[in-house]
Amino acid sequence: GHAFGPNPSPRIVMMGLRRGGKSSICQVMFHNMQPLDTLYIESTTAPTTSVFSSFIDFAVMELPGQINFTEAMIDAERIFSSCGALIYVIDSQDEYINSLANLHSIILHAVNANPNINIEVFIHKVDGLSEDFRLDAQRDITQRVTDELLDDGLVNVSISFHLTSIFDHSIYEAFSRVVQKLVPQLATLENLLNVLCQHSGIEKAFLFDIGSKIFVATDSSPMDIPTYEICTDFIDITVDMNNLYAADRRPKPVTRSDANANNGTANITNRLESLPQGRPIGSTSRLSNGVILYLQQMVKGLALVCLMRKESMPNIALVEYNIEFFRDALEQLWLIG
Ligand code: GDP
User: Fold this and answer.
1) Total count of domains within the chain
2) What is the mean predicted confidence (pLDDT) over 21-50?
3) Domain coverage including residue 38
4) Are residues 82 and 214 in the same domain?
């Protein structure tokens, strides 16, 4: 599938044992739930699908983890054949031996159904581990999983490992990496962002999916986490301000019982839906350290978020002029994609 254009897009399937954190990840990423509130959601018991419709248009399918395969796996094979990535969530705070056995058999099924599938292992809940422990866990899990695959003679499996937690930005970063692999026009997008930065004195530019805060692409200058965090915070502030003054379509405040009711259903609520249609959001902010943040919604639910410094920026009119070119290029890409 394509990530651009009107056709069905890459699907992402998420699996893992019960209590691993799958529902929490989906609620935090796609329904803007506060991480601490995930304590109260019910664990996944039946396969659930939530379709997250934005620029990326992907479906996250959660299957309850089980150590032995049942009918659900037969279905899963059908699903694997049409999906781009399988995210497998491992609870790093728990004994993960059972998870690894489960993951191993799932990989065999997935690769059998779709040899090109990307296997993305989320070593999750690492907020509870010390820095040393995190790296140890990552090394140990990577070693065990790849050894087993080698034993099976599977050398061409595309498999990556990510350390994640819903309590910081690591989950967004990991999801961004997963999604970027599925965007066929990634190289073109990166080039466009590079050109934009060079000609506008922009220090760092991201193309974000506003609803999920997944970044679809960034320019090739080095990325640090604080910069990324400033940009995601800026998206939140801009969306919240926008919603506050969109008197006609005020978002309903989410209460805990709503959050429970939404859990596991195909209910789609993301904040983008509360944005007024047809009026792209945008804002500019100058921070006390001289950094200028600039956000403009582009096509669909995508926003360009840039970081500039007053000294290096030619002038805002030129920047905006260049951004219009960038938007045109995106629209072109959209049409041909
Ligand atoms: P599921 O059965 O895989 O859907 O797991 P849940 O989403 O129900 O999560 C089980 C528990 O793990 C919940 O109490 C969550 O609050 C907790 N949890 C989820 N993600 C994290 C995380 O990143 N860190 C920590 N410390 N706890 C988490």
Assistant:
1) 2
2) 79
3) 12-180
4) no
